[in-house]
């Protein structure tokens, strides 16, 4: 078994899915709003809140043209430079401590995605219980090694990565001292469509790398996440906001509090329903056996009279012989007078 613990909470197939609310840039540069998001995540039943730890300067260059300008007409961020986008979306480092403190007060685990080595050092000073690696950094082997050297569990999104790239990433993490890895199936489009999600990758990842697996879900709604649990997802990450109508860099594909509550509830129901291979009545089904069809005398029958299709029927309840014996009964003679409504049994036959 590959199960492990994050902050005392067990992650694995024998435990309910671990639900992460990703704040990202949905704080809209307001610490007050960030703390409101923490409180809403706690009320929704999420198990953890995740931040992203970077500055615009550690992510990119302050250039507003060419490779550093987003021109893709299908992008949510068309018309922004990378620098301006990250400047708007980043969580100020001085906010981390009050956010983490509020999480602790409300029983939420709190951790973050570091985007460079200075962010790892900073998060270590806050004693985070684990780390997340974003899809766009899953091939940054020096960063992976730095994170792994902390000895804490790492959750890695697999968006865009080939099998060969993931092999390098997992190997680097293990060699650098990471004791526990969870790979999240991820489609790096915002939002993602169900058709592009390819959930069958989840059990394949688990078998190929012998790790816990989960889903970083950018689709709308809860259906895809619920389905992922049946295929083995033990961790689910969803972007989270107070209201999509409030706007923000990630609001368009983020969950609102009532949706997060539904996600927590429905994924746990899906996990409970997996069970095991089972046939025959369960203990709770056994009382229902009496409502099966069985053979009953449907008309009064005198001693010596022949059983026919008119005086014997397969009906509910289930206290007579099973219907499969009907043809064996037909043509036989009654051993005694039989009242209509009597369950058929072998001792009624002459």
From TrEMBL:
The keyword Transferase applies. It comes from the Bacteria. InterPro entries: AFP_Neu5c_C_sf, Aldolase_TIM, PseI-like, PseI/NeuA/B-like_N, Pseudaminic_synth_PseI, SAF, SAF_AFP_Neu5Ac, SAF_PseI/NeuA/NeuB. Its EC number is 2.5.1.97. One of its GO terms (biological process) is carbohydrate biosynthetic process. Keywords: Transferase. Pfam families: NeuB, SAF. Residues 294-350 form the AFP-like domain. PROSITE patterns: AFP_LIKE. One of its GO terms (molecular function) is N-acylneuraminate-9-phosphate synthase activity. Transmembrane segments: none annotated. NCBIfam families: PseI. PANTHER family: N-ACETYLNEURAMINATE SYNTHASE, PSEUDAMINIC ACID SYNTHASE. This is Pseudaminic acid synthase. The gene is pseI.
């Amino acid at each position: 078994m590959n199960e492990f613990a994050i902050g005392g909470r067990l992650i694995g197939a024998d435990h309910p899915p671990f639900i992460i609310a990703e704040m990202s840039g949905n704080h809209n540069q307001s610490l007050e709003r960030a703390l409101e998001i923490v409180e809403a995540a706690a009320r929704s039943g999420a198990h953890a809140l995740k931040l992203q730890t970077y500055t615009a300067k550690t992510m990119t260059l302050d250039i507003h043209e060419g490779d550093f300008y987003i021109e893709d007409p299908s992008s949510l961020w068309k018309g922004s430079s990378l620098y301006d986008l990250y400047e708007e979306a980043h969580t100020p480092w001085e906010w981390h401590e009050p956010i983490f403190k509020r999480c602790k007060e409300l029983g939420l685990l709190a951790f973050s995605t570091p985007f460079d080595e200075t962010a790892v050092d900073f998060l270590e000073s806050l004693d985070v219980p684990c780390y997340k690696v974003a899809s766009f950094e899953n091939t940054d082997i020096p960063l992976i090694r730095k994170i792994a050297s902390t000895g804490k569990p790492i959750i890695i999104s697999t968006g865009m990565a080939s099998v060969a790239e993931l092999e390098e990433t997992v190997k680097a993490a293990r060699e650098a001292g990471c004791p526990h890895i969870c790979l999240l199936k991820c489609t790096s489009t915002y939002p993602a469509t169900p058709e592009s999600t390819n959930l069958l990758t989840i059990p394949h990842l688990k078998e190929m790398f012998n790790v816990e697996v989960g889903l970083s879900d950018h689709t709308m709604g809860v259906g895809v996440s619920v389905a992922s649990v049946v295929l083995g997802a033990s961790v689910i990450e969803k972007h989270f906001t107070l209201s999509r109508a409030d706007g923000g860099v990630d609001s368009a594909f983020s969950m609102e509090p009532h949706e997060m509550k539904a996600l927590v509830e429905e994924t746990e129901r899906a996990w409970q329903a997996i069970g095991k291979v089972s046939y025959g009545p369960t203990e709770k089904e056994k009382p229902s056996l009496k409502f099966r069809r069985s053979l009953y005398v449907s008309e009064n029958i005198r001693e010596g009279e022949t059983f026919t299709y008119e005086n014997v029927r397969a009906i509910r309840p289930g206290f007579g012989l099973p219907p499969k014996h009907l043809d064996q009964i037909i043509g036989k003679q009654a051993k005694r007078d039989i009242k209509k409504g009597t369950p058929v049994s072998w001792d009624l036959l002459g």
